[in-house]
Amino acid sequence: AQSVTQLDSHVSVSEGTPVLLRCNYSSSYSPSLFWYVQHPNKGLQLLLKYTSAATLVKGINGFEAEFKKSETSFHLTKPSAHMSDAAEYFCVVSDLAGAGSYQLTFGKGTKLSVIP
Amino acid sequence: DARVTQTPRHKVTEMGQEVTMRCQPILGHNTVFWYRQTMMQGLELLAYFRNRAPLDDSGMPKDRFSAEMPDATLATLKIQPSEPRDSAVYFCASGLVQLAGANFYNEQFFGPGTRLTVL
Predict the structure, then answer these.
(1) Which whole number is the average pLDDT over A11-16?
(2) How does pLDDT run across B5-41, given as a tens digit for each residue?
(3) d(Cα A77, Cα A22) in Å, to the nearest integer?
(4) Binning pLDDT at 50, 70 and 90, where does residue A99 land?
(5) B43: number of CA atoms within 13 Å, CB side?
(6) Residue numbers of the domain that contains A51
(7) DSSP of A8-77, one letter per residue?
(8) Average pLDDT, chain A
(9) How far is the alpha carbon of A79 from chain B, nearest alpha carbon, in Å?
């Protein structure tokens, strides 16, 4: 069985300061990991994905995430927050659990606020 | 720019009425998912299809919800009869599941959602 824990339900940063959104996962197999972003009243948009290639993954809008198998973590970072980054972020895991299972398991989300 | 489309974007209805939500997946994708999002429960998987066949609908209340894919370009989610507790945003997502060597790809692309309000 797979699971995702987003360690913070709400993170608040000042504009121009670094962003760190934390995610830990558990998976029985080699997982695929994703970060999705949801702006208010919008659908979910893929930020970046890890699929067992490079452990440091670069995504859109300056975000990146590092897969650390020993720590079962996939934290999302950005060097400098922008006002437009204010949104909810979901960490997601998927693996080959069972025959033909293609489900994504979503974390509960972290709401990022950016203070001017 | 290929996108998942959903109609209607907003629906207000009265308790007891039938509601039908539609989704057009991205052409060529072989999986379609229906999710429900509420403040209390977050994002819940209701059902999903692979190659138009239902694989799992265990997240769906079967007595009132039904999901179908009449063809590769259309997925529907119906609620009959609707209840106030069904008020939520319903998302459709499509993806292309692939195995390439040891790698497993199943990125999902989400539609904009249908905001349902049942009075």
Answers:
(1) 97
(2) 999 999 999 999 999 999 999 999 988 999 999 988 8
(3) 9
(4) very low
(5) 27
(6) 3-115
(7) -SEEEEETTS-EEE-EEEE-SS--EEEEEEE-TTS-EEEEEEE-SS-SEEE-GGG-EEEEETTTTEEEEE
(8) 89
(9) 26
d(CA A102, CA B95): 10
Instruction: For residue A97, give the amino acid letter.
Output: A
CB burial readout B59-96, b (16+ within 10 A) else e:
ebeeeebbbebeeeeebebebeebeeebbbbbbbbbbe
Say whether A109 and B42 touch across the interface (CB within 8 A): yes
Distance in Å, alpha carbon of B83 to nearest chain A alpha carbon:
22
CATH code for the domain in which residue A10 is found: 2.60.40.10
Q: Which CATH architecture has domain B5-111?
A: Sandwich (2.60)
Is A10's Cβ below 8 Å from some Cβ in B? no
Mutate one of B30, B44, B110 to test the A interface: name it (highest A CB count within 10 A): B110
- Per-residue pLDDT tens over the stretch A28-69: 777 888 999 999 888 899 999 887 778 899 999 999 999 998
Q: How many domains does chain A have?
A: 1
How close A10 comes to chain B (CA, Å)?
Answer: 14
Determine the length of chain B.
119
